[in-house]
């Protein structure tokens, strides 16, 4: 503290320490943040269920999504990565997860998603031919990207019944 | 900046930065605005730099009290005179002194 540069150094380095402590505190507030999103995700119909390149099954779904994710935003949220995921179980693999659609929600204003005719962005193709008659669960997953702190993920699942027993063309 | 001033500057910088950070956190959380917290902290940093870094007069209220200066020429002259006086007083003491010098 004896000269100009020593004092500048002391102020800036201590500010760094304080800023780091603030970041930890801000991260802790995300643990007490209450989020209660209103979500409805439905399977409207199966447009197509057919072999894909003769070795795999492909399903083309028609879905309806109505979600209000505004409450997922806390003061520390930068953006949400939202995606719809199909989950099912086969004899070969207990857990199958296929992402069908995604969206980057950058602000609270964009967090109200109304898609009565939600189409695939990515194809639902099974590894194998086990889609027929398989019970399907559609999940809406939102990955929260905070301004400071670790990413975390929350989701809500909707069992939507089984796929058709026979191929649909 | 004197010693008391340096101590004051250090105390001030700790307190100012912590107080601004605390205010920024509480206000930002209450308003739900991360940006507001960052702005309050930036203002706190600017204010702290302004208060602590320049050598303001209030950091110089306790000037140093240096001891009176020692004149090196006076000290050298005093030592030389005492040794010559000892040498002149008696021959035996002078020989003892010369042995000690080796």
UniProtKB/TrEMBL annotation, chain A:
Cell location: Endoplasmic reticulum membrane
Main location as per UniProt: endoplasmic reticulum
Coiled coil regions in record: none
Membrane topology: Single-pass type II membrane protein
Keyword Endoplasmic reticulum: yes
Keywords noted in UniProt: Endoplasmic reticulum, Membrane, Signal, Signal-anchor, Transmembrane, Transmembrane helix
Keyword Cytoplasm appears in the UniProt entry: no
One Pfam family recorded for the sequence: SPC22
GO CC annotations on file: signal peptidase complex
Listed GO biological process terms: protein targeting to ER; signal peptide processing
Family membership noted in the UniProt record: Belongs to the SPCS3 family.
Protein name: Signal peptidase complex subunit 3
Natural source organism: Monoraphidium neglectum
From TrEMBL, chain B:
Pfam families named among the record's database cross-references: SPC12 (PF06645)
Sorted UniProt keywords: Endoplasmic reticulum, Membrane, Transmembrane, Transmembrane helix
TM spans (from-to): 12-31, 38-59
Membrane topology of this protein: Multi-pass membrane protein
Primary location: endoplasmic reticulum
Subcellular location: Endoplasmic reticulum membrane
CC annotations in GO: signal peptidase complex
Superkingdom in the source lineage: Eukaryota
Keyword Repeat: no
Record's compositionally biased regions (Low complexity): 82-102
Region listing for Disordered, in residue ranges: 75-102
Database matches in InterPro entries: Spc1/SPCS1
GO biological process: protein targeting to ER; signal peptide processing
Annotated function: Component of the signal peptidase complex (SPC) which catalyzes the cleavage of N-terminal signal sequences from nascent proteins as they are translocated into the lumen of the endoplasmic reticulum. Dispensable for SPC enzymatic activity.
PANTHER family reported for this sequence: MICROSOMAL SIGNAL PEPTIDASE 12 KDA SUBUNIT, SIGNAL PEPTIDASE COMPLEX SUBUNIT 1
Family membership noted in the UniProt record: Belongs to the SPCS1 family.
Protein name as it appears in the record: Signal peptidase complex subunit 1
Source lineage: Eukaryota, Viridiplantae, Chlorophyta, core chlorophytes, Chlorophyceae
